[in-house]
Design a protein that fits this description.
The structure holds two protein chains of two kinds. Chain A is built from four helices and one strand. Chain A is mostly helical. By secondary structure, chain B is mainly alpha-helical. Chain B has two domains: 93 residues, Rna Polymerase Sigma Factor, Chain: A (Orthogonal Bundle); 76 residues, Arc Repressor Mutant, subunit A (Orthogonal Bundle). Chain B is 67% helix and 1% strand. The N and C termini of chain B lie far apart (56 Å). Classes of the chains: A mainly alpha, B mainly alpha.
Chain lengths: 120, 192
Amino acid sequence: MSDLLNILSNSNKDIDNQKLMDYLSGKLSASEKHEVEKQMAENAMVNDAVEGLQQFKDQKHLESYVDQLQKQLNSYIRQKKARRAKWFKGQYEQWIYFSLVLVLLLIIIAYVVIKRLAHA
Amino acid sequence: MNRPEKHPDYSDQDLLENYYRDGNTEWLGLLLPRYTLLLLGVCMKYLKNEEEAKDCVQQVFLKAITELAKYRVEYFKAWIYMVAKNHCLMRIRDRQGKRSIEINDFHVPSMDETTEGNPHLEKDELLNRMSDALAQLNNEQKQCIILFYLEKRSYQEIAETTGYTLLQVKSYIQNGKRNMKIMLENRMRSGK
C-alpha cells in the first residue's frame, strides 16, 4: 500500500536513453515497461518525449537523427573552443607587444633623463 | 586540473558547476548529448515533423550554449525542457502567424520531490489520506491507479485487463493522480 505514495512523486531523475529506445521498440519486460511508464507519469519531459518519439515512422531514422545531432554539437563545441583559444592567444600577443613597447619607452626616457642630468 | 574527457560519470549538476568554474564548453559537450533523445521526442511531440524536430533540437543546443554562458541554471533538466517547449511554441506561432504565450506554467521540481512536500504529515497519516482520496476517484481512474501504482502493471497490461485503450489508461492515471493530489491539498488546507 505504501506504493500509493509514489503518486505524490515528481521525479527529476534521469532516464537511460537505451532503456527508452528499448521501450519504444517493445523490447522491455513488463516490469521494465512499468518502470519507464512510472517515470513518464512522474516527469512531464519524459512523458512528452515518449509521446513524440512514438510518432517517428522508423526507429532507424531516430538513431541516425540522434547521431547527426551529436556530431553537429561536438563539431560546434570544437569550433567554439578553437575560436576561444585563438582569442586568448591574440590577447596574450597583444600584451606582449604592449609590454615591449612600454619597456622600450621607459629605456628611452631613462636615457634622455640621464643624459640631461649629466649635461647639467 | 579537471578535464572534461576524464569524467564521463559526472552528474548534470557537476558538469554545470565545472562549466561555470572554468568556462570550458567541453563540459556542455558532455551534458547536452544526454538530452538529445528526450529533446528530439519533445520537439517531435509539438512540431509533428521529423526534420523540423531535428532542426529544433539543434537550435535548442545553440541557445543552451549561449544562455548558460550568461546566467546560472540550477535545475538543468527542467530548464532545458522549458527552453525546448518555448522554442517549439515560437515555431508553431511563426507557422501560424499568430501571437502566442510562453509556456511557463509547469512545475519546476526541486531535484526530487516525493513525500518531502508534506513534511508535517507522518507517513501513516499520509497513506490514510491517500487511501481516502483513492476511494473517492471514479471507477475508471481508481482501477487504473491501483493496477499501475499498486500492482505495478504496464500501460499495455492495464489496457488488456480493463479493455480501455492505451490513451484512456494513460489519461485515467494522469487525471486520477492529479485529482488525488488536489484532494490531499484541500484536506491539508482545511486542516482535517
